[in-house]
Design a protein that fits this description.
alpha/beta, 8-stranded parallel barrel, 8-stranded mixed beta sheet, 12 helices, globular
């Protein structure tokens, strides 16, 4: 890490590359920075599933996915030229800036600008990697300057090799996975073979040197070198398709384009998932905006992948309705309206998107979106924690830092919950529950616990007169028998019932310190590990459950039971789940461990 913060901030600020000379010389501010210290490694993720009634926790149908029905998503982020507040590594104060957080549906994230070489900012890389999403930079040549740069590159195979090596070096230095190649200028016919050589060489190099390396081609020039968007895959551009891993089709396609592309994929014996039909959310040449679902449905029906361009439409267009999105320190009205619009937009699309379940333990989230009006630590504003009193609560500054984004819900929460920025358990926000008396899914998961034991904790805020709150785990036995449900609330005792439901009470608070056992055992997160913890109304419940065999946790959901006289609702601030071996701990008899016979008992009957 840098010792001088001002110098560090300058070096870590994201930047583009403008010339071949700058690229070949590796002339970037952060050339001496070890980005390994700042970048989150890309997390593994489970194979995706199509969720039927994706928000309903009780709906357990998951459509298996194979090459016959796999559709991928490329998210291409282009907002007002980019390199705005997101360029900073440490933070800006503009907490209301554009955030993307529906990562479970996305396979590739491309940071796009109209500069020659677009290097993704670290915050976007970290947010994507935490959710297992690959990140692409952009190589673009357009206009006379771009044509000149491309001409110089294609002058010789030696120059091409040097450029490819430099582009791979950028991937490895900044820890992103590949490139979108966008040639939007005429190419001389005698340079076409060298253009194909460039693409093949780049594909081979990222495959060899970059983990999960990938190269996308954007539908632009054709075999003659003319700039002629085809809006489909055909004989004029198929060689570019062969030379890269995937092709992003321009946005002006129609149903005949889908048919032509399907026919060519069959001819090439290529998977249709490698073709990404573009949707410009602003509506260029397609039905889009809040009607984007109609266009996506046509793509999905033909089993192609989709490239969603400019998803920040939900943020940018707030200006048309009188919102000021350029206030340096953010604005509550902008933030709240953007989040509502964004949830609705993705909720409308989700029927046609695959969901990647979380599969890595330990699982922890505090729902922070990478921004906040202030920073909270264990239920209190950070300034109050550092000062030792709640009097300093208003001194904490707003922040926008996508590297601080925590794991996000697996599905949009439109009409189910909202993001609450006036309070949080950790980070900058929490979930404010909107739906009552009916459970709903937060996280699709694929957690395998062969030992049959788990520890679960959640931080919540709820006045007793406003109702009761449960987290719910949907699980099955290791032989994938029928599903069961674990209701984690506050009950008199652990009660096993028929029809696959089990109700569990919290671990006794006076024994909470016993959960932080030897290092070889799972640990409760530091911010949640407080005996009988309560601050600013926040409480943490812990649960220890031991089954008589291995289980698989498939979903995490919530249920808020609202009282008729309720004045407020429930808030969820953090969730934690991990394997736990009860045999490694000497728990008192009255500690309230739940021992559940799922194999030998009547829970499955």
């Amino acid at each position: 890490m840098c010792d001088n913060k001002d110098e560090c901030c300058n070096k870590l600020e994201a930047e583009a590359i403008h010339t071949n000379e700058q690229l070949l010389a590796f002339n970037v501010r952060s050339k001496d920075v070890n980005w390994h210290e700042y970048v989150t490694p890309k997390k593994p993720r489970s194979s995706p599933v199509y969720l039927q009634r994706q928000f309903n926790l009780i709906s357990n149908y998951r459509e298996p996915i194979g090459n016959h029905n796999r559709r991928k998503v490329l998210l291409c982020h282009d907002m007002m030229g980019n390199y705005l507040e997101d360029r900073h590594y440490h933070s800006s104060k503009k907490y209301d800036d554009y955030r993307f957080y529906h990562w479970s549906a996305v396979d590739y994230f491309c940071y796009f600008s109209h500069k020659y070489i677009t290097i993704p900012p670290c915050g976007w890389i970290n947010a994507a990697h935490k959710h297992g999403v690959s990140v692409l930079g952009t190589f673009i040549t357009e206009g006379s300057d771009g044509a000149k740069r491309l001409h110089d590159i294609l002058a010789s195979t030696e120059m091409i090799d040097n450029i490819v090596d430099a582009m791979v070096k950028l991937c490895k230095h900044y820890h992103f996975e590949g490139w979108l190649i966008n040639v939007e200028c005429k190419v001389e016919s005698d340079s076409m073979e060298n253009l194909y050589y460039f693409l093949n060489r780049l594909r081979e190099a990222v495959e060899q040197h970059v983990e999960a390396g990938v190269v996308f081609w954007y539908d632009s020039v054709i075999e003659t070198g003319q700039l002629s968007w085809q809006n489909e895959l055909n004989a004029k551009n198929v060689r570019f398709f062969r030379s890269t891993h995937a092709t992003l089709i321009n946005y002006s396609w129609d149903d005949k384009s889908l048919e032509q592309t399907r026919s060519l994929c069959e001819q090439e014996r290529a998977h249709s998932q490698s073709v990404f039909f573009g949707i410009d959310v602003f509506g260029r040449n397609q039905i889009a905006k809040f009607q984007s679902k109609r266009t996506l449905a046509r793509i999905a029906k033909n089993r192609f992948s989709v490239g969603i361009f400019a998803p920040a439409w939900t943020y940018e267009t707030l200006q048309q309705f009188g919102y000021n999105i350029k206030q340096e320190t953010g604005d509550d009205a902008v933030n709240e309206t953007f989040l509502l619009r964004n949830e609705k937009f993705w909720w409308l699309l989700w029927d046609h998107l695959a969901t990647h379940p979380y599969n890595t333990l330990a699982f922890y989230t505090d729902f922070c979106m990478g921004s906040g009006k202030r920073t909270y630590v264990s239920g209190l504003p950070k300034a109050a924690v550092e000062d030792g009193s709640e009097a300093a609560a208003g001194e904490s500054e707003g922040f926008f830092n996508l590297s601080r984004q925590s794991l996000q819900p697996s599905v949009p929460l439109h009409d189910l919950a909202t993001r609450h920025y006036d309070d949080a358990f950790n980070g900058g926000s929490c979930l404010r529950i909107s739906q009552c008396d009916s459970s709903f899914r937060l996280f699709a998961t694929d957690f395998k616990l062969p030992g049959g034991g788990l520890v679960f904790a959640y931080a919540y805020k709820l006045s007793p007169q406003d109702g009761e709150f449960d987290c719910i785990l949907r699980f099955c036995t290791s032989n994938n028998a029928r599903d069961c449900y674990l209701f984690l609330g506050d009950y008199y005792d652990t009660v096993s019932l028929q029809r696959g439901r089990c109700y569990v009470s919290p671990f006794k608070p006076k024994y909470n310190e016993l959960l932080s056992g030897p290092l070889e055992c799972p640990q409760i997160p530091k911010d949640m590990a407080f005996p009988d913890f309560q601050a600013n109304g926040w409480r943490v419940r812990y649960y220890v459950v031991e089954f008589d065999g291995g289980i698989q946790v498939k979903d995490i959901g919530v249920l808020y039971r609202k009282t008729p006289e309720a004045r407020d609702t429930a808030y969820l601030g953090a969730v934690y789940l991990n394997e736990f071996n009860v045999n490694h701990h000497d728990f008192p008899v009255d500690s309230n461990i739940a021992l559940i016979q799922v194999y030998g008992g009547d829970l499955l009957n």
